[in-house]
Structure formats: structure tokens, C-alpha cells
Amino acid sequence: MNNTVSPALDVNTIRDAFPILQRQVNGHPLVYLDNAATAQKPLSVIDAISDYYKGYNANIHRGIHRMAEEATTAFEATRKTIARFIGAASSDEIIFTRGTTEGINLVAYTWGKQNINKGDEIIISEMEHHSNIVPWQVLCQEKNAVLKIIPVDDNGELSFEIFKKLLTPHTKLVSIVQVSNSLGTVNPVREIIEEAHKAGARVLIDGAQSSVHLDINVQDLDCDFFAFSGHKIYGPTGVGVLYGKKDLLEAMPVFQGGGEMINEVTFKQTTYNELPYKYEAGTPNIADTIALKTAIDFVESIGKDLIREHEVELVKYATRQLEDISGLRIIGKANNKVSLVSFVIDNIHPSDIGTLLDNMGIAVRTGHHCTQPLMKRFDIPGTVRASFAMYNTFEEVDALVAGVHKAVKILL
Ligand code: PMP
């Protein structure tokens, strides 16, 4: 196979930017197909982290010395870049978090505590990641509220008709994943947001998987909250983003208390800082936040459209070949799907395939992918998931398919 299917994307040059792709695993060249778990980092991102520590390590916002100013400027430059990247009206609406999980929890522990009361309803779906289930479950238990679930059909799509029926005057929030990390399904979030708003509910979008593959414009979508993680978009771990509409963020109670989030503290009463600092207590993850801008710059220098086109071709190519393997079943056949292929094989446990692929230097993810209710719905213990990024090649898909053939021969 060759790379001519996506002629506009120079995959070989892109690969040169990622040092880790040169390594060997178990005596084989690394074939990294676990990008939905975390993407690899280009050298520019790695350098941005070490440049900060080597050149201008200082705490931000409070210092008046030169390095503090340089660090603050670089840190705030990321906020501006993110605001543009996701189409926010203002960088005041960009809150830095540790990742998607913390972003969702922030909303549950602030907006949720303030707005969810006994008998209220929160709607999520059967394909949610645990981080978009458990915070709402905890909140509903505490408040005596009701968690309602949109079912997933055999193709791995949400039933829009059932969703509409689940909406009632008691629905306060719909919290939904834009792209499923287990199925690759792209959910019709625009339509979901529209319907939810008609019913008077707020909407949170889990953008952990979508922000790297789809063009995001939060104003256009009109979502109330949008959460994503830096590490899935070629940036560092430990930094993520929560977008919220300004009026909501202003009205919400504070999350964590501490330095930076205050205006004035007395023992009698404390007043809080303005947005976005109100939600950023303590010293943040400065180096990684600065490097997140470098990751976004890198993605944009290549072009999300070209990357997506390439990844869609990889998914199609992998699907076609994998489907030919006897006993193999693709889990997740949505019409609108990106970035990954999940599958099971009759009479073989997914982790056995994963282990044999690892022996061949091929990194895939096996298991429930933090979506246990979804696995239950398909009545499977888990899947083998190959997930793609801009640097993956068709030859790597060939290696995966050959590896699966070999694994089946050994295991059956
Ligand atoms: N939601 C989805 C759809 C995900 O794929 C993930 C990460 N696997 C998360 C939420 C949680 O992201 P993080 O672990 O970076 O907080």
C-alpha cells in the first residue's frame, strides 16, 4: 500500500516531527495505534516544555520580575489561541483544567450543585465515557435527581427520537460526547443542543475525542459548556480546557478555593476574582499550558481538514481489510464516524489479541475503554481498538491487519 490516497498530507515529513515514532518495540518498529488514549507529541511541543524550564521558569500573574512577565505572557497566549481554536467569544470563557475529566467535574460541582434539585433530570447517553457518567451519578444521588440515558442502537448511533422523548420540563442538563472514544461515532450535537435548549436545558459537550478531529466552534454550536484534554491533541498531559458561556461562568459558585481565584480575603468574607481566574485556584500547570499552544499551532500548520481526510481514509482502509477476517465483528458502524476502528473476534478475548500485537510492536488499546455500560449494551467484555492520528500510514494498517491474522492463527 502507499500514501497516495491522501496526497495532500506529507505523512513522512509529519512523522519526522515526532521523535518517539523512531523507536522500536519488542524488536519491531513502533506502530502506534492508541491515539484515542493519548496522541504522541511533536518535538516542538517537547521543546516548548523544556524551553520554559530552561529559560523562564517563574510563577505567573503575581510576579513583577522579567521572567514572571514572560511566563505570564506565554501562558495567556495559550488561552487566546484556545479561544480562537474553538470559536469562543472571549478568552475569559476559557478555563484551564487538568483535562476533560476535571472540566466535567468542575461543572458538576459548581453549576450542578447550584442548579440541580430534587426531581430534576440530567440526560446522558449509553456511549459516555465514565468521566461523563460518574460525576452526574454522584450529583443525582446527592440531590435526589434523575439520570436518564439515551440508548445506542446496533450501529452505535444514538436514537434522536428517543432523546426527544426523554426531554421534559424537568430536564436541566444534557451532557453528551461529541465523538465516542469506543465507537468513533460522531453524534449530531448541534441538533441535540437545539432540542435541549428548546426544552430549557443546558448542554455540556465532551470534546475529548472531537477537538482533535473535527472543527469546533462553540458559538456556532451554541453549547453551554465544552470540555477537552490537551494530551489527545498532540499536547502535554495534565492540561485541558473547560469552555463555558460567560454569563453561566459568572453566575456559578467557585470550585476550588486558594490563591489567584480571590479578589480580597478577610476572615469575615472573601470576594472572588474575575473570569477566568475565578476557577483557577493555585499555581497552574504552567509549562504544559504554554506547550499546548505549540500543539495547536502544529495542528493548524498542517490543517485539520487534511488531517481528517487522511484519518478517514485510514479508518475506511482498516475497516475494509479487518472485515474480511473470519469471525471478526466491527463494533460501531455509524454513518458518521471518525478516527478509530473497534472490533471483537469470536472466541478470542480482546486482551489476548492486544498482547500478541504488542509482541509485534503494534500498540492498540483493548478493554472497555472506560465505557463499561456501552460494552454491556453490546454484550462484550471489551474491544480491540485501533485509533489513528495524522502520522499513521497505510503500511501501519497493513501491519495491524497482518498482525491480527497472525494472532487469530495462534489463538484459535
Ligand atoms: N471523554 C472521552 C470521550 C474520552 O475519550 C476521555 C479520555 N479517554 C475522557 C473523556 C477523559 O479524558 P481525560 O482522561 O483526559 O480527562
Structure characterization notes:
With 412 residues, this protein is of the alpha/beta class. The protein folds into two domains: 11-41 and 303-411, Aspartate Aminotransferase, domain 1 (Alpha-Beta Complex); 47-300, Aspartate Aminotransferase, domain 2, CATH 3.40.640. 41% of the residues lie in helices and 17% in strands. It has 15 helices and 17 strands. The chain has helices at residues 11-16, 43-55, 66-85, 100-115, 134-143, 160-166, 189-198, 210-213, 218-221, 246-251, 286-302, 304-323, 350-359, 372-377, 394-411, and strands at 24-25, 28-29, 31-32, 94-97, 121-125, 146-150, 171-177, 202-206, 225-229, 240-244, 262-265, 270-272, 328-330, 340-345, 362-363, 365-367, 383-387. The strands form five sheets. Strands 4-10-9-8-7-5-6 form a seven-stranded mixed β-sheet, sandwiched between helices. A four-stranded antiparallel β-sheet has the order 13-14-17-16, covered by helices on one side. Strand 7, helix 7 (189-198) and strand 8 (202-206) form a beta-alpha-beta unit. Helix 3 packs across helix 11 (286-302). The structure holds 4'-deoxy-4'-aminopyridoxal-5'-phosphate (PMP).
Any idea how many domains?
2
Head-to-tail CA distance between termini: 28 Å
Assign the structural class, choosing from mainly alpha, mainly beta, alpha/beta, alpha+beta, or little secondary structure: alpha/beta
Strand fraction equals 15-25%
CA radius of gyration? 22 Å
Average pLDDT number: 97
Bound ligands, named by name, code or SMILES: 4'-deoxy-4'-aminopyridoxal-5'-phosphate
CATH uppermost class of the largest domain? Alpha Beta
Under the CATH scheme, the architecture of the largest domain is 3-Layer(aba) Sandwich
Provide the low-confidence segments as ranges. none
CATH topological fold name of the largest domain: Aspartate Aminotransferase, domain 2
Q: What is the β-strand count?
A: 17
Summarize the amount of helix as a percent range: 40-55%
Largest sheet, if any? Answer: 7 strands, mixed
Number of alpha- plus pi-helical segments: 15
What is the overall silhouette? globular
